[in-house]
């Protein structure tokens, strides 16, 4: 496919996005390929010494690339759902710079995003990650209708390869700061937030329907510290307006980088 055709198709796909996300959808591929744009986004988020922090990522990126390759060999019929390297770098740099005491993540799956978050906590020598995951596998059973009352198809899922556990790609040396809870976020999230109290970062990466995304953002927001980060993966996947709608409801601006949405409290 020649570049002009790719651009035309991207523009056509952008028209299907919610107002407020169309231009951001067009820019997402550039975010994944232009290092300067990553540094610019980090600058707007008050990340100092971004070059030094990003230089730490060689080992983490190598681990993620190896895990991605293994996933494709184990479950070739599915996409691993991995973050692009620049999106993973964004997560890593934000955790390194802000040094949060508590991070809450929903949607661990194989554990790519989790690895970036935990690697940053390990480098900080501070903080803890609490993850909620409703696991399902790529063995031909268990990936349809996982969440009651929803329709989940191949477009939505990055299932765990058969025989693997949630977060299987997370290296053993990064697990000391990790607490993984298995189950539906609709039952576990509020309970977890009540347990841990104030959080520095919330990262939504579970079911990306409008209803579920808004549920998680609305539930997490009161627990987020002033200046804390609400991060949302795959903001374009379902072509709805959950991110801008939530930002309006709390009277805060939002930004995107790649497929990741960002709101600062």
Rg from alpha-carbon coordinates: 18 Å
Helix share, percent: 40-55%
The whole-number mean of residue pLDDT values reads: 90
Q: What is the helix tally?
A: 10
CATH-defined fold name: Rossmann fold
Oligomer: single chain
The portion of residues forming beta strands comes to 5-15%
CATH superfamily: Vaccinia Virus protein VP39
| Outline type | globular
Query: What class would the helix/strand composition place it in?
Result: alpha/beta
- Briefly, what CATH class? Alpha Beta
For the sheet with most strands, the description reads: 7 strands, mixed
For the secondary structure, the number of strands is 7
Termini distance? 42 Å
Low-confidence stretches: 141-148
- What would CATH call the architecture? 3-Layer(aba) Sandwich
Tally of distinct domains: 1
Q: Which sequence of SSEs, written as H and E, runs from N to C? A: HHHHHHEHEEHEHEHEE
Describe the structure.
The chain is an alpha/beta fold and 265 residues long. The protein has a single domain, classed as 3-Layer(aba) Sandwich (Rossmann fold), CATH 3.40.50. It contains 10 helices and 7 strands. Strands 3-2-1-4-5-7-6 form a 7-stranded mixed β-sheet, sandwiched between helices. Helix 1 runs antiparallel to helix 2, helix 5 (58-74) runs antiparallel to helix 7 (112-124) and helix 6 (85-98) packs parallel to helix 7. The longest helix has 17 residues, at 58-74. The chain is globular. The N and C termini lie far apart (42 Å). 42% of the residues are buried.
